[in-house]
Amino acid sequence: MKNPFSRAIRQRGGFPVLPGAFPLFGHLPMAYRGLPEAMTRWPEVGKIFWIHAGFGMWGLVCRGPEALEVLRSKACTSTHLQEISPAVAGESLLSQDGAEHGHMRAAMNRPFQPSGLSAGAFGKMSAELLCELAGRWARQGRAKVLPDVQSTALEIIFRMLGVTVSDIEPWRRRYRDLLLANLNIRLRFPGSPAVRADKAREWIDAQLLEIVTAARRSKDTQSLVGALAHEEDDAGEPLTTRELIDNLRLLILGGHETISSTMAWMVLRLAHHPALWDSLVEEAKKGERVPETLDEARSFPFAEALFRETVRMHPAFGTMTRKVTGPLELHGRTLPVGALALVDLWGISHDESLFPEPMEFQPGRWLGRKVPPSAAEISQFGAGPHFCLGYHLAWLEGVQLAVALARTIGGKGLRPILREASDMEPIYVPTEHPSPGVTVDLR
Questions:
Q1: Are 262 and 314 in contact (CB under 8 A)?
Q2: What is the pTM (predicted TM-score) of this model?
Q3: Counting C-beta atoms within 10 Å of the first and last residue's C-beta, which end of the chain has fewer, N or C?
Q4: Which of 162, 166, 263, 179 is nearest to 214 (CA)?
Q5: Using omega within 30 degrees of 0 as the cis cutoff, is the peptide bond preceding 4 cis?
Q6: What is the pLDDT of residue 39?
Q7: Sign of dihedral through CA atoms 102, 204, 158, 230?
């Protein structure tokens, strides 16, 4: 049957344009209703098509596992993020390529590797804080899932940095405002998203400058901020103060905003699927404690599968962007130089060739495997030289939370119960997370 909207599909530079754009705001309003769904509504646009990102900005959406080549290719750059999202990316490794990116990555890589995480006391500390969260929920008999997880995740990253923060809430509030920069609403007036994002960055950077200055003066190399302040790249060059601040701002963002989205969804999935909760509780009984290292986390395969399936079903970011700077062929077409390419991570995570019955939440698809996940299967963390620095960190925290919930809440004979099925509906902006108001009962 012919799609009634097919006549509305127009072309731009030889590629189709996704229908449904609004004047001035383009497809931006769709983000509030679920852009991933809009991308699948018009199959006629194919695997490469334009969307209007608002205020005259266009993005070329690239779909399918093959689109990961955009993230790997030297014909694409990340430096455009310094222009379109300076409040978030700044001059961090997220917005650098080539030698500059290599310099930062080499100076930051060691503490985030499995050996670095195991060598420090991070795993023990994060396990304790996540057990405290589970215990608090059990005593209260309910959980305000997203805000509670965000606060705990933020405390974890600060403890990991070696920074004492007496009040987490101002940081959480500033980071929420910082993420408004991703809306790409460039109009500037008092209280506008752009102004709020800039003010949030100014506040965050001022706090981080004090932290970095203190770390430079000290001889501490055990905490993360101490290690990064004294670490050097392969040529013996340390990070500059500006590089440290921009990367710490990004690490704190990734260390609580993205992982808390995943952990919150995991709690809701357990509340939505009683059989999964029962399987998790049964597995947790066999372990001696909440895992503190990645090796220990591997002894909880169901908890790991639960984490991986949650990340797949609810990727923290629906797309990743690169700017095309040279010849790059994809799906038999040459991408136009200068285009802003948007790799559809949500689509890859729900691709039937990778994940049969992709709309079904099935942790079992990750169990009994003899090979590690492929690059496409963990594309939610990126690909190529910009693959997420905190991948192992997120993996460990996700397994720790699952086991902590099962041992603490399940150990008291309680289970999470979702009040409303509609609470499973995601909010896609600024990252894909459940509604902050969703409450889970424990009884």
A1: yes
A2: 0.91
A3: N
A4: 162
A5: no
A6: 72
A7: positive
Closest CA to 40 of 58, 63, 59, 60: 63
Q: Which of 144, 58, 28, 124 is nearest to 335 (CA)?
A: 58
Tell me the three state secondary structure of residue 12. Answer: strand
**What are the 10-residue block averages of pLDDT along the chain, 443 residues in total?**
55 93 84 66 90 89 97 96 86 93 92 73 92 97 94 90 81 89 79 92 94 88 85 93 94 87 95 96 95 95 98 90 97 97 94 95 96 95 94 95 98 91 56 81 95
- The reported pLDDT for the residue numbered 56 is 85
The tokens for 35 are 């852009």
What is the C-alpha to C-alpha distance for residues 119 and 105, in angstroms, rounded to an integer?
19
pLDDT score recorded for residue 112: 84
Residue 337 φ then ψ, to 5°:
-60, 135
Amino acid at 2: K
Contact between 231 and 239 (Cβ < 8 Å): yes
pLDDT of residue 5: 43
Q: How large is the C-alpha radius of gyration of the chain?
A: 22
Establish how many alpha carbons lie within 13 A of residue 217's alpha carbon, considering only the half-sphere containing its beta carbon: 6
Q: What is the chain's length?
A: 443
Exposed / middle / buried, residue 7 (Cβ in 10 Å: 0-12, 13-18, 19+): exposed
pLDDT on residue 181: 83
Q: What is the DSSP letter of 256?
A: I
The helix/strand/coil state of 293 is coil
Phi (first) and psi of residue 148, to 5 degrees: -65, -45
With contact defined as beta carbons under 8 Å apart, do 156 and 125 qualify?
yes
CA distance 8 to 392: 45
CA distances from 239 to 111, 205, 236, 254, 255 (A): 15, 16, 10, 19, 20
| Location of structure tokens 């994940």 | 355
